Amino acid sequence: MDIKNFSRVSWSDEEILRISAAFLACTRDAVIITDLTPRILAVNPAFTKITGYAEAEVLGENPRLLKSGRHDRAFYQAIWISLRETGHWQGEIWNRRKDGKIYPELLTLNTICNEQGEPTRYLGVATDLSQFMKNEERLQHMAHYDSLTGLPNRLLLEARLQHTLERASREETRAAVLLIDLDCFKTINDSYGHAVGDALLVAVAHRLRTRLRQEDTLSRLAGDQFVLVLEALHEYLESEILAGSIQEAMEGPFVLQDGNKVYVRASVGISVYPQDGDTAQALLIGAETAVHRAKELGGKQFCYYTSALNVQARATLAMEEALRLALEREEFVLYYQPKVDLRSGRIAGAEALVRWLRPDYGLVPPLEFIPLAEKNGLIEVLGAWVIREACRQISAWREEGLAEIKVAVNVSARQFRGGALEAVVAKTLTHYAVTPSHLMLELTESMLMEEPEEAVARMTALKSLGVLLSLDDFGTGYSSLAYLSRFPIDQMKIDRSFVNDIITDPGSATIATSVIALAHKMRLGVVAEGVETEAQAGYLRQNGCDEIQGFLFSKPVPAEEFAALVRQGARLPGPEALRQSRTLLVVDDEPSILTVLQRVLAEEGYNLLTATSAREGLELLAKNPVQVILSDQRMPEMSGAEFLSRVKVLYPDTIRMAMTGYSDMATLVQAVNEGAIYKFLGKPWEAEQLRDQIREAFLYYEGIMVLRRDCACLKATP
Ligand code: C2E
Ligand code: CA
Ligand code: CA
């Protein structure tokens, strides 16, 4: 400051000195004078106040004792360069007080020169900015947050929402904006006064916060309107569940200061990025429109901006409400599907499958409500009910004198992770005095592979209760073999999708047989599910599968029907019965050959028909359903090839084979080429080889039948 020219008044040197001293004493800025070393020559009282150093402590010291450590060397070098070249520097700088606290200041440095213009001193004047910055922060906060609830306000909401939308666009995900508007808040505000209204809004904000996930942003838009932004929306259902949860949070009275209780309900309007707009404003307007619609519907509702979504949502909502009630009203039943031992053909146990007897709807299959129950959390209650009901049934069957029946129940992912499963199982087993090994839990591969380490721990805990564990839908997930061997399971279930075309698709067949081999290597039982045909059962039996489950033996049936099956001793036709239904016709003009053949095939269990001539053979074919025909080639009346060519036309489904001792090649080749003959066998034959060939012919026949049925199904479905 050039005091000499201050306001064009001429001052005496003495006056100047006095004024300078007074100024230095009373200013709130710290003043510091150094020589060129620089060593501190003088500081004012404000310096002491700001830095905490007394004058005596700093005189003769280098000002670097105030260094904060926040700036690098280049920063200080720049200051010195500026001072040397321009005689001046100004900027914000972080310094350190004596107590170690770092603070910001605005520092102005000047070089003071003598009359010859040579620098002699440095003068520093510093304004402490820390208070100022705090105010700035507060201002910032005031601009972005609602002072009543402390929630982000519209300004910040829009900024954040825009940010969310940009991310959603980059990551190609959806986002939802939920506008929450309190029903009849105005009435409360008017009748109880604004102070009560304000207190209520604070309480509402508090309840809303309890329903959010960490990543959700809640803001207050205005008055009684709040906004929630849902990022990375995978399914619409998520926003519906949240809307439901918000409404639920409002249930229960808000108690006012005077002890009065008020009730608040919330309407929710939902807009979704991208279909309802791609800017924050557009989505907020959409949500606002939707919330008005929700109010028109009578409040305590939610509405989408896009009306098509409302239709779907209403149905889901209705289903959800009905589901909740269904538990109270005991509308669920368990059906039981037998698991059958492939060796004995006897019932080995049952899988319990839940059904919902929804009034006015009939029997609802689980795939229509389990996914919903899984999402809204009802599955934990429902799942616990299933376990209790299955155990109750096991004990009821035992009382009825039925041999104790093993029942498997399905466990959902959420139920498995929920934490209550172990306790529910333990309690239920004790309550119904069920032998733990008679209860099996079916866990799907996919739910175990999500968090395999945790899964191992949970399964181990369950196993320690003595129950059995089965790996359901095996082959559809992505089990790593490393984990598979660590899962303490007792059984694997080959998924229905592989069983379905096990006879026709080599890929499915390989998977199925590999699973069987793998399970047996790990000393686990293996069950194939969805077995519908004898051919499938036969194939699985031949490949060593232990049990099957499927429509071939029985659909899932009510408990009484299942008990009846057990009482009757219902059995899956064993291999003998299966072969009995296989009819083989052998035609040869030499009776001795027929006798030998009868002997060779005696153990195979076929229904064996013999004929000594083509004519006799045709007669037998007319009277009996025959699948495989073996004919001699050289016969007096009609050659084998000719006989089989006729049969081909009459009974195209039959598998036809010729035997010949002579190399009567020309005719035979022709017959084969015309499709009249499937194979020809040389005479004399090896007994074992012959048996193999005939078995193969029957399997071939059964394979064709399955194929044909599947094709028919395909044609039938448009
Ligand atoms: P899942 O565990 O794979 O059950 C087997 C499904 O295959 C059952 O369908 C059963 O009726 C059906 N099925 C059995 N044999 C055959 C067959 O030969 N052919 C055909 N096409 N299907 C057959 P359902 O009862 O509709 O159950 C479907 C799914 O719902 C079950 O699949 C299971 O994941 C779930 N589920 C059923 N009950 C419960 C339960 O109590 N709790 C849980 N969490 N999920 C359940
Ligand atoms: Ca299952
Ligand atoms: Ca399954």
Could you give a short description of this structure?
With 718 residues, the chain is α/β, with parallel strands linked by helices. The protein contains 28 helices and 27 strands. It has an eight-stranded mixed barrel, surrounded by five helices.
Q: What does it look like?
A:
With 718 residues, the chain is an alpha/beta fold. The protein folds into four domains: 3-128, 2-Layer Sandwich (Beta-Lactamase); 136-309, Alpha-Beta Plaits; 315-576, EAL domain (TIM Barrel), CATH 3.20.20.450; 579-714, Rossmann fold. It has an eight-stranded mixed barrel, surrounded by five helices. A five-stranded antiparallel sheet has the order 2-1-5-4-3. The longest helix has 30 residues, at 687-716. The termini are far apart. The mean pLDDT is 88. Bound molecules: ligand C2E and calcium ion (2 copies). Ligand C2E binds at residues 337, 353-354, 365-367, 370, 383, 386, 409-412, 442, 472-473, 496, 529-532, 549-551, 556.
Topology readout:
Layout (H helix, E strand, L loop, with lengths): L12 H14 L3 E5 L5 E4 L1 H7 L3 H4 L14 H14 L1 E9 L5 E12 L5 E10 L1 H15 L9 H18 L2 E10 L1 H8 L1 H16 L7 E6 L2 E9 L2 H15 L3 E2 L5 E2 L2 E9 L6 H17 L5 E3 L2 H23 L2 E10 L5 E12 L3 E3 L5 H7 L1 H22 L7 E4 L2 H6 L2 H11 L7 E6 H6 L1 H12 L4 E7 L6 H4 L6 E4 L1 H5 L5 H16 L3 E5 L4 H9 L4 E3 L7 E2 H10 L6 H6 L2 E5 L3 H11 L5 E5 L2 H10 L4 E5 L7 H11 L4 E6 L4 H9 L5 E4 L4 H30 L2
Parallel strand pairs: 11-12, 14-16, 16-17, 17-18, 18-19, 19-20, 20-21, 23-24, 23-25, 25-26, 26-27
Antiparallel strand pairs: 1-2, 1-5, 3-4, 4-5, 6-8, 6-11, 7-8, 9-10, 13-14, 13-21, 13-22, 14-15
Helix pairs in contact: 7-8, 12-13, 13-15
The structure holds ligand C2E and calcium ion (2 copies).
